[in-house]
């Protein structure tokens, strides 16, 4: 059913077995006989999977985002970065992983003991590290409480702790970190605002925007599309925040569905967003 729905629209909201296309300032109803349960994520030429706590990756390995390290081939030359079949990440072997997320140029894994491990692009102005490098092997992120879930965007990362707190770091283009500014975060920073009243249960990252669920509501922030890289002839490429406009938001802002609903899941694509919701 998910594949049938994807042919109908790329921006989808499931509302008690009804499918809506998300269009700025307008919602159009498409009735489907069954619920849609699969939404896309920002995983560009890269896949991560955990099997019995072991982590495998495959696809394009540019910037070290597969976590296998740099490999030498014949005559000491570097081999291709790509993996065409799932391959165990040796550096994480013996560490039981419960959650994994793939971004555009980096990846994150969370172990059973709540520690966060990151690998891939570490350019100073992008992911917020003090030194520019491609860390092709997983390394642990310091300064985080016990963590449960992670999400990776184009150049930013979000983590939900076991207490429902949301921490972010990395590039902050268009305010995608939700910390009230566009300043780069070189280390994890807690997102406050509405999340001080209610804990965060879900988070997802697009290229330069973010969405989260808190208190049954969907909040979005970051790139709205008005100054997007792919705008053509003045036409907006956005609306992904669902705020009836294409402007940027630097703080989490509640999405208005015009009904009493409870959000169950949210997912961000490159420049679109979807959520599964039910009547409350």
TrEMBL record:
The UniProt entry, under SUPFAM superfamilies, shows: RCC1/BLIP-II (SSF50985)
Q: Which UniProt keywords apply?
A: Repeat
- Short name of any one Pfam family annotated for the protein: RCC1
Positions annotated as RCC repeat: 53-113, 114-163, 164-216, 216-279
Cited Gene3D superfamilies: Regulator of chromosome condensation 1/beta-lactamase-inhibitor protein II (2.130.10.30)
Could you identify this protein by its name? Ultraviolet-B receptor UVR8
- What species is this protein from? Capsicum baccatum
């Amino acid at each position: 059913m998910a594949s049938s729905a994807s042919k109908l629209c790329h921006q989808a909201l499931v509302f008690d077995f009804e499918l809506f296309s998300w269009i700025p300032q307008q919602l159009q109803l498409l009735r489907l006989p069954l619920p849609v349960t699969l939404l896309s994520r920002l995983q560009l030429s890269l896949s991560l999977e955990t099997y019995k706590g072991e982590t495998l990756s495959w696809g394009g390995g540019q910037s070290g985002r597969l976590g296998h390290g740099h490999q030498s081939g014949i005559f000491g030359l570097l081999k291709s970065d790509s993996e065409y079949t799932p391959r165990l990440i040796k550096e994480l072997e013996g560490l039981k992983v419960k959650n994994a997320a793939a971004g555009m140029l980096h990846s994150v894994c969370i172990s059973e003991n709540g520690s966060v491990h990151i690998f891939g692009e570490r350019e100073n102005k992008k992911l917020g590290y003090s030194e520019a490098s491609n860390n092709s092997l997983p390394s642990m992120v310091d300064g985080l409480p016990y963590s449960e879930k992670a999400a990776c965007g184009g150049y930013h990362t979000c983590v939900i702790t076991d207490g429902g707190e949301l921490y972010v770091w990395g590039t902050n283009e268009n305010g995608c970190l939700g910390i009230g500014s566009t300043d780069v975060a070189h280390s994890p920073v807690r997102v406050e605002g509405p999340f001080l009243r209610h804990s965060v249960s879900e988070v997802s990252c697009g290229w330069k925007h973010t969405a989260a669920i808190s208190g049954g509501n969907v909040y979005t922030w970051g790139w709205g599309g008005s100054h997007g890289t792919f705008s053509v002839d003045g036409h907006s490429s956005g609306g992904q925040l669902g705020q009836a406009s294409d402007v940027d938001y630097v703080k989490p802002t509640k999405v208005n569905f015009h009904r009493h609903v409870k959000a169950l899941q949210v997912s961000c694509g490159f420049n679109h967003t979807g959520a599964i919701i039910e009547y409350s």
